[in-house]
Amino acid sequence: AELAIGLAVGAAMLSAAVAGLYLLGVYDISGPRPASAWGTIAMAIESGFMEELLMRAIVLRLLMRAFGIWPALVLQAALFGALHLANPNASPVAAAAIAIEAGLMLAGFYLLTGRLWMSIGVHAAWNFTQGWVWGASVSGIPVVESWLVSKPKPGAPEFLSGGAFGPEASLPAMVVGTLTAVVVLWWAWKKGNFKA
Question: What's the mean per-residue pLDDT of the chain?
Answer without folding.
Answer: 95
